[in-house]
Every structure is written in structure tokens, then in C-alpha cells.
């Protein structure tokens, strides 16, 4: 019973999703389905029985013509509605798909960051994206087909029952066979499709590798193209094995149903109808025509009705993927009733520990630190020390395993997440520019820019030191980023990309700026220039910057050195050098490399 309730709930859920895109569309299709069912009955069955029986029984031709004319007018009206329906579906389906995709995308940007690092959740997300638009409309189609089939079965079945009940029994047999075999068939198809999706995702990734620009150099300079070709070969073999595993069983079930329809039902019906008409003379010619013409159709339609019913079960499996994603409850839920975050006075990590899901080892261990408004704070340490994780907790991407992160003396859980995150501008190590968007849109991080926003984008580009390059482009700030969608698009170097990232942070104009390894890909001289720009543009801001190279840590008001998830040293640069501990040792070793670099390159 629970299973059937879930199937009904899932279909109601999908209908609500569809109605968000178009409130009238489902009702139009249902109304059209009723008309279609009536038209099928009249034009494929009743019309022939009526004409043949009326002629055989000597009815007046005028009465026959009037009845046929009425049915023809209805069919004409139906076909006019059909053409309108076809156009309406083409237009409205895009609108519905847009709304459903927006619902998914809104959810995608609100779920916990950790979800995208969880393979099980990510698989669910990909399956939902792959299925949701087509599956939603297919579900509606299935409901409409069921309505048509029920009307057709009811009308033709009643007519056949009035002729002779034995033909109804013959027509119903395939329905029982479909119900008995259909559930097994649906289960096998679902398992096959889910495995195919997982394998195809890996195959699609390998295909992308060969034409994405960021992999082009490595593919030509290394043997990775051979590795990827082998991966492609392996995924194709796995897809073939999956088809073999399920294909023959599914084929056997479908063949059994086909034999049942074509042999048991069709030939039995022909024999009985012909005998009653030609031998025993107990059936009119029109009735014989109805039986021979309709018994296989109604048998097929009953079987199709059974498949419609089984399709509800099949659709429900896929809808579960959609619901699991859309109904996911964040581990860092937005406190919609929380207070908005005001200007920063002080941020505090109080005995914070954190471990990623599925990892036994803690990434951060008992972290305590204070950040006052207007201060420049450097978080330093080797790769893997936990620096970026600390920032993710600060931005409320994750909840601490223990301890608390506080903003102005209150846990950040007490604030609205959107309001809290608006206090931060960020420049991440893996900063991305968005292709198909203009430079100005990338800087302002929004589209349809107003004139004042373009002015702000220009100021930010000037302050970050990249405006001269941008202004030299034919379309200046309106130039599309990248050449993937525009041959006249702009391509930027690593250093230029970093300057655009800084321009975005400048344009957002918040009181707190977070810089996560903003110069990791640059040489020490370029790094120094980047930080000169940063401290010039953010001198009145609270700046938290993460480094593994220490040359720019000198400028910080306070430095925290992390190692294996713990703060092992803290203080100003001078204090840490005087301590002569790990920070001092790291700084001296790196300083030697900087000197060698300036003298002609690192040796």
C-alpha cells in the first residue's frame, strides 16, 4: 500500500512542477485526450458498425447520411483542435522545461557545498538533471494516454459486450499478462537505465577531454590521450555488457506479450466471429466487422492500458531521483527568520573542529581565533593544512563538527545566510570566468547591466590594473569572455584572470574580503604586484588572505600558521620571526628562493 501511495504522491508532485510552468497546459491536454478517445471510438469502430448494420437492416439513406455527417463534423473539429494542440505543446513545453530547470538550478545553488563532493548525492543530481524535463512531460503524456485508452476501452468494450460477452473475455486476457510481466519488465529497464547513466557520465567526461581547451596542451605533450582512449574503450565495453545483462530478458518478456496478442487473441476472435456470421447467422455483418476490426485493437489498447499503469511505477522510480534532490534538507539550512547581518565588529572561531563526510580524520582541530574589523589576517601553512576549509566554514558552506563560528558575538546560524554572505567579497584560488558573458557581466557578477553598473565595472577594472587591456579590445567591456561561443571573445592570461577576480571583489564593495591563494599560479614578482594592488584597494577593509608562500604575510596585522589542521603559531611577522619556530624556518627557506629568482631564476 505504501508503494502505491508513493506512486500517486510522485505523480501529483510532478503535476505541480508542470503547473509552475503553465497552469492551463495539463488541463488542455486532458480535455484533448477526452476528445481523442471519443473520436477514436466513433471513426474507427462505431461508424462502420452503424453504416453496415443500417444498410443490412434497410434503414433510410437520409438518416444514415445525417448520422455520418454529425460524426464527421465532430472529427473535423477534433482535427482543428489537434493542430492547435501540436503548436501549443511545442511552445509551452519549452516554457515548462525552463521553469523546471530553474527550480533545479535554484536548488543547486542553495544546497550544501559538500553535496558536490558526495558521489552518491552528485549521481542523484545528475540523474535528476538528465531526467526531469523529459520525464515530467512523459508523465503527463502517460496520464493523457491512459485517459484515451480508458475511454476507448469503455466505449468499444461496451459495444463488443453487447454483441457477445465472450469477446470481452478474449480482449481482457492480455491486460492480465501485461500486469503480470510488466512490473518485472519495468524493474529491469530502470536498473539498466540507471547503470547506463552512471557509465555514460564517465564516457561523456572522456569525450569532453578531447575538445576542452584546458586539457589541450597535456593531451599533446603526454600519453594521457592513450589513457583516456582506454577509458573510453572500457566504458563502451561496460555499456555493451549492461545491454547484454538486461537486453535478452527484456526482449523475452516483450516477445511473450507480442505472441499472446497476435496468436491467442487475434486468431481466436476471427474464428468465432466468422463462425457466428457465416455459419450460425447469429451476428450481423456490421457486428462481425466490429469484432474482427476492433478485437485486436482493443486487446492491444487494454495491454497498452496495462503498460500505462505499469509506466506509473516506472515513472515513480525516476521521480524519486528528482524528489530526493529537490527535497534535500541542507545541513547548513538558511535561517529565514534570522536577523540580517550588520557591519562587522568581530569574527570568532571558538574551539572549531571539522571533518568531511566519510573521512574519519579531522581536517580542522580545535581552532580558536579572532578577527577584528579592519584588520589584515594571513592564514598560512603547507598545502593540506586546512586553510581553505577554514574559509569554507567562515562562509557558512559547512557546519563545524564541534565548536562554533561567531559573527559580532552570535553564532552565524542565527543570521540569514544570504544576508551573512553578502558581507564578503571573495577571490578563490580556482577563480572562474564565465564564457558567453561579457567582461562587465563577469566583473559585476550579474546580467542586464544598467549604466551605473557599467561605470562601477569600469572603476573596478581600473583599480585592479586590467582596464588598459580591456579597453584595447574592440568591444571593450562588452567583449565576450572566451572563444567557445564567440570567435571575437577575449582570452586572458593567468595574471590577467587574477586581476579580473580582484576587480569582481572591488566591485562588490563589501567590508570583508577573503583571498584564497589569489596568486598561487604567479611568480614571486607578479605575486608582489598583485598584493600591492590588493592592499591599495582594500586598505579600509577587513582582509583575510590564505597563503602558502609567505612573502606577502609580512603585511598582515596577524598571522596564523596551520599545520595538520591545528594553529601551531600566531602573531605578527616580527613576533613569529623572533620565536624562531616553524614560521621563521619556512620564511627563511622561501626567502632564499625569492633571492635566487630575482638574480636569474630559481635553481
- Name the structural class: alpha/beta
Rg from alpha-carbon coordinates: 35 Å
Physical arrangement of strands within the biggest beta sheet:
6-7-8-3-9-10
- Sheet having the most strands: 6 strands, mixed
The overall pLDDT average reads: 80
Shape: elongated
Q: Calculate the terminal CA-CA distance, rounded to whole Å.
A: 74 Å
The number of helical elements comes to: 17
Strand content: 5-15%
Task: List the uncertain runs.
Answer: 597-603
Number of strands: 10
List the secondary-structure elements in sequence, H or E. Answer: HHHHHHHHEEEHEEHEHHHHEHEEEHH
Give an account of the 3D structure.
By secondary structure, the protein is of the alpha/beta class. The chain is 64% helix and 10% strand. The chain is built from 17 helices and ten strands. The protein has helices at 2-21, 25-56, 61-108, 119-163, 165-209, 216-221, 224-279, 285-326, 387-394, 417-421, 439-444, 451-464, 467-471, 494-508, 524-537, 573-579, 582-598, and strands at residues 346-354, 364-372, 376-380, 402-407, 410-411, 424-427, 512-516, 542-547, 558-563, 566-571. The strands form two sheets. Strands 6-7-8-3-9-10 form a six-stranded mixed beta sheet, with helices on both faces. The longest helix has 56 residues, at 224-279. Residues 597-603 have low confidence and may be disordered.
List keywords for this structure.
alpha/beta, 4-stranded antiparallel beta sheet, 17 helices, 603 residues
Amino acid at each position: 500500500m505504501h508503494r502505491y501511495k508513493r506512486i500517486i504522491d510522485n505523480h501529483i508532485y510532478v503535476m505541480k512542477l508542470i503547473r509552475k510552468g503553465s497552469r492551463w497546459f495539463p488541463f488542455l491536454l486532458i480535455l484533448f485526450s477526452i476528445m481523442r478517445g471519443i473520436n477514436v471510438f466513433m471513426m474507427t469502430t462505431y461508424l462502420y458498425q452503424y453504416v453496415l448494420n443500417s444498410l443490412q437492416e434497410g434503414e433510410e439513406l437520409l438518416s444514415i447520411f445525417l448520422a455520418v455527417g454529425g460524426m464527421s463534423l465532430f472529427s473535423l473539429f477534433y482535427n482543428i483542435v489537434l493542430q492547435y494542440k501540436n503548436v501549443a505543446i511545442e511552445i509551452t513545453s519549452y516554457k515548462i522545461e525552463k521553469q523546471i530547470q530553474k527550480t533545479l538550478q535554484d536548488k543547486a545553488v542553495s544546497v550544501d557545498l559538500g553535496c558536490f563532493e558526495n558521489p552518491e548525492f552528485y549521481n542523484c543530481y545528475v540523474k535528476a538533471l538528465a531526467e526531469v524535463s523529459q520525464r515530467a512531460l512523459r508523465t503527463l503524456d502517460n496520464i493523457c494516454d491512459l485517459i484515451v485508452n480508458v475511454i476507448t476501452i469503455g466505449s468499444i468494450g461496451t459495444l463488443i459486450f453487447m454483441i457477445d460477452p465472450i469477446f470481452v473475455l478474449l480482449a481482457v486476457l492480455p491486460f492480465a499478462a501485461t500486469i503480470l510481466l510488466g512490473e518485472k519488465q519495468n524493474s529491469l529497464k530502470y536498473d539498466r537505465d540507471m547503470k547506463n547513466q552512471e557509465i555514460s557520465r564517465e564516457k561523456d567526461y572522456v569525450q569532453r577531454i578531447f575538445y576542452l581547451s584546458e586539457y589541450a596542451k597535456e593531451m599533446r605533450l603526454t600519453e594521457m590521450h592513450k589513457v583516456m582512449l582506454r577509458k573510453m574503450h572500457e566504458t563502451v565495453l561496460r555499456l555493451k555488457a549492461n545491454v547484454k545483462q538486461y537486453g535478452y530478458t527484456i526482449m523475452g518478456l516483450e516477445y511473450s506479450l507480442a505472441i499472446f496478442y497476435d496468436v491467442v487473441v487475434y486468431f481466436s476472435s476471427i474464428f468465432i466471429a466468422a463462425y457466428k456470421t457465416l455459419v450460425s447467422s447469429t451476428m450481423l455483418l456490421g457486428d462481425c466487422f466490429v469484432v474482427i476490426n476492433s478485437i485486436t485493437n482493443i486487446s492491444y489498447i487494454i495491454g497498452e492500458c496495462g503498460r500505462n499503469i505499469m509506466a506509473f511505477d516506472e515513472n515513480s522510480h525516476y521521480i524519486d531521483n528528482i524528489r530526493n534532490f529537490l527535497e534535500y534538507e541542507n545541513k547548513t539550512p538558511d535561517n529565514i527568520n534570522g536577523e540580517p547581518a550588520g557591519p562587522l565588529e568581530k569574527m570568532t572561531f571558538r574551539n572549531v573542529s571539522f571533518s568531511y563526510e566519510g573521512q574519519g580524520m579531522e581536517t580542522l582541530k580545535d581552532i580558536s581565533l579572532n578577527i577584528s574589523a579592519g584588520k589584515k589576517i594571513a592564514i598560512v601553512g603547507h598545502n593540506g593544512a586546512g586553510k581553505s576549509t577554514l574559509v569554507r566554514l567562515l562562509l557558512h558552506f559547512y557546519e563545524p563538527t564541534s565548536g562554533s563560528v561567531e559573527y559580532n558575538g552570535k553564532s552565524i546560524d542565527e543570521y540569514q545566510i544570504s544576508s551573512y554572505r553578502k558581507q564578503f567579497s571573495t577571490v578563490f584560488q580556482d577563480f572562474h570566468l564565465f564564457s558567453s558573458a561579457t567582461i562587465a557581466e563577469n566583473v559585476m557578477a550579474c546580467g542586464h547591466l544598467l549604466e551605473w553598473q557599467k561605470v562601477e565595472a569600469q572603476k573596478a577594472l581600473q583599480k585592479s590594473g586590467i582596464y588598459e587591456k580591456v579597453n584595447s579590445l574592440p568591444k571593450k567591456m562588452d567583449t565576450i569572455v572566451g572563444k567557445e561561443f564567440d570567435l571575437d571573445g577575449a582570452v586572458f592570461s593567468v595574471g590577467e584572470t587574477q586581476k579580473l577576480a580582484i576587480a569582481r571583489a572591488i566591485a562588490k564593495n563589501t567590508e570583508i574580503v577573503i583571498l584564497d591563494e589569489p596568486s598561487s599560479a604567479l611568480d614571486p614578482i607578479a605575486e608582489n604586484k598583485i598584493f600591492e594592488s590588493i592592499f591599495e584597494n582594500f586598505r579600509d577593509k577587513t582582509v583575510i588572505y590564505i597563503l602558502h608562500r609567505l612573502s606577502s604575510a609580512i603585511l598582515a596585522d596577524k598571522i596564523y600558521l596551520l599545520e595538520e589542521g591545528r594553529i601551531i603559531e600566531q602573531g605578527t611577522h616580527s613576533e613569529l620571526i623572533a620565536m624562531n619556530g616553524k614560521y621563521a624556518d619556512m620564511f627563511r627557506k622561501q626567502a632564499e628562493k625569492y633571492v635566487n629568482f630575482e638574480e636569474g631564476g630559481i635553481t
